[in-house]
Design goal:
By secondary structure, the chain is mainly β. It has a domain of 132 residues: Head decoration protein D (Virus Head Decoration Protein, Chain: A). It has 1 helix and 14 strands. Strands 5, 6, 7, 8, 9, 10, 11, 12, 13 and 14 form a 10-stranded mixed β-sheet that branches. The chain has a two-stranded parallel ribbon with strand order 1-3. Strands 2-4 form a two-stranded parallel ribbon. The longest helix is centred in the last third of the chain and has 4 residues. It starts with 88 loop residues before the first strand and ends with a strand.
Length: 264
């Protein structure tokens, strides 16, 4: 019979985090080893469904600690659930998921989150970024600063705009001012420099009001000033060349103003 569970009993032989617990080879252990080399300390059995195989309690530190120098520190399987947490889960490092992620609590992740399955969310997804962007190959990366207006290039990438009412307009380089992208599509490593272009949402844009002042709500299009937008005063020419709407005015000169991206 296994001895009665005592939550205040110290773990034998655990001298430091990551060290092995010392087992006496000839001392019988309840419920044989499976797989070979593992120690099954206690098996929950009985007619009720509330049996606990291993329990750990702590007043001010870890209730359960697991570590491995060369393999997996903690592994769990279950017919219904492999693990259940009542509270927040904090992960320092990468999270690799091979299935669906169902959550009812908070996930605080200081590293990257890589998933191969679906994310099923019953509530809202809140992102601190302001625009929906996509990565493009950049023809002139040294000149394409955040906020620059970009147009499609014959090479398949994008380059900085340089003519008025250009229907090749593709978007604005994301990241200028205090607006950052919330979502970036098609991000992958290539030999060609790439930049995220804001295709929807709010983004700071380089504008030129030398020819005409810009008011809030004015439609913007490409200008002859490289990488800058201007007020679209000719509706016929602006068709297919509109970048978006100005969210702040600019009376004269050049500047960086927030716009609502709406390619049309």
């Amino acid at each position: 019979m296994p001895e009665e569970f005592n939550p205040n009993k110290p773990v034998p032989g655990l001298s430091r985090p990551g060290s092995s617990t010392v087992f006496v080879p000839n001392k019988p252990v309840p419920h044989a080893v499976s797989p070979e080399g593992a120690k099954l300390v206690e098996r929950a059995e009985g007619e009720f469904g509330d049996k606990v195989a291993i329990a750990g309690f702590s007043v001010s530190n870890f209730g359960v600690f697991a570590s491995s120098e060369q393999g997996v520190g903690l592994f769990a399987t279950g017919t219904e659930l492999a693990a259940q947490f009542e509270g927040s889960v904090q992960v320092t490092g990468n999270c690799d998921l091979g299935g669906a992620l169902h959550t009812k609590g908070n996930h605080v992740c200081d590293g990257d989150l890589h998933t191969k399955g679906d994310h099923i969310v019953d509530g809202d997804i809140q992102l601190s970024g302001a625009d929906y962007a996509e990565d493009f190959d950049i023809v002139d990366p040294d000149d394409a600063a955040p906020g620059s207006v970009m147009v499609l290039d014959d090479s398949g990438g994008v380059r900085m705009s340089s003519q008025a009412y250009d229907r090749r307009v593709a978007g604005v380089v994301s990241g200028a001012g205090n607006y950052k992208p919330a979502v970036i599509l098609d991000r992958h490593a290539t030999k060609t420099p790439r930049r995220p272009l804001a295709l929807m949402g709010k983004v700071y844009c380089r504008v030129d009001a030398s020819e005409s002042p810009i008011a809030i709500g004015d439609l913007l299009t490409t200008s002859a000033t490289p990488g800058h937008a201007m007020k679209a005063e000719n509706p016929a020419s602006a068709f297919g060349a509109v970048i978006g709407k100005a969210l702040r005015p600019l009376a004269s000169g050049r500047g960086l103003v927030p716009i609502l991206v709406a390619l049309q």
